[in-house]
Amino acid sequence: MCHKLPRLSCDGVPQEPVAPHGMLVFRPMRRLGLLALLALAACGGTQIPQHNGYKANAKPWKKFKTLKFDEKSEAKAEGDLSYPAQHRSAWFAIDLAVPGEVDFRIEITPPGDAVNDAFDLGVEVLDAGYRMLVRKDNEEGDGQGDLNKQLAIKDQPPGRYYVHLYLQGRLDTADYILHAVMKGSAPAEVKSDFPAQVAFVPALPVVPATDDTPKNYHPPVAVVTSTKKVVHKGPTPPPPPPPVTTISARIINVAIVSGGTQITVGRGTSSGATSGMKGKITGIANGAFQLGTCNERACTAVLQGVTPDQIKGSGQVTLGL
């Protein structure tokens, strides 16, 4: 006689079979265990991510890309997003140099059968202080589920603005192409009431048609008196002394000699050092010296009261003091 197999739920628990009237049902334990394993395997569905779509400690708003506008004031950017791959959003920056508006259009390619029926790519535009100016997603705005979204910001002052694209479902992925067109605002029309506010010219005195000046009148002649300032020249002051120019040099060798400690500095006559030039070891109080012999590349000097360790600890001299 045939028998029905037990039905299993998705959690692996057998359900009571429904037997037709007059039919016996057998439940072999070994077959029941095998069917439970098969049912558990069949119940394994798509794994829903439990994260928020971002990597740990991620700050995606700080990793924006600045849109570059061409001579037609148009810009374009494209990419892909994936909530399971922790790449949930994309940020773009726009620098508005003059007052105006920006029109946006986003072409969206959804992932296909893997996405839910309520798929929608959210988009919002924010100002430099991250205050939302316009938004379109599942909860706000219009065009939910549209694969070609359009939005704009109008009459905005110069400054930086941000475009934020983001997925809303935990299984969502999408490709996008962002188009932006920048338009400058037309200058405001200035209405003038000229010449309504211009004052009338007051009445002018009447001038006779003929000159009534007496014939024997002579205008006074202005007498101009000039004084000449005598400048007494004194002796010409001597020209100021040339500024003292110091040069630095590196100590390239230290040796103990009969008169003290001899140093060799890495500057010679070809680089501004001369015999008899005074100098001092940097950082040593009693490190003053006078250069002895010099060639084109180096000079030597002998110091007393300074140890080689002190000299090596400094390693630098100043010449021309």
Would you mind describing this structure in some detail?
The chain has 321 residues and is mainly beta. Among the domains are: 60-184, Sandwich (Jelly Rolls), CATH 2.60.120; 247-319, Thrombin, subunit H. The chain has two helices and 17 strands. The protein has a six-stranded antiparallel sheet with strand order 15-14-17-12-13-16. The protein has a five-stranded mixed sheet with strand order 3-5-10-7-8, with no helix packed on it. A four-stranded antiparallel sheet has the order 4-11-6-9, with no helix packed on it. A hairpin with a 6-residue loop joins strand 14 and strand 15. The radius of gyration is 47 Å and the shape is flat. The N and C termini lie far apart (119 Å).
Order of helices and strands: EEHEEEEEEEEEEEEEEHE
CATH topology category name of the domain at 60-184:
Jelly Rolls
> Going across the major beta sheet, what is the strand order?
15-14-17-12-13-16
For this structure, what is the CATH class of the domain at 60-184? Answer: Mainly Beta
User: Which structural class do the helices and strands define?
Assistant: mainly beta
- How many runs of DSSP E, i.e. beta strands? 17
Summarize the amount of helix as a percent range. Answer: under 10%
Mean pLDDT value: 81
Tell me, briefly, the overall form: flat
Rg for CA atoms: 47 Å
The N- and C-terminal alpha carbons lie at a distance of 119 Å
Q: How much strand content do the residues show? A: 25-35%
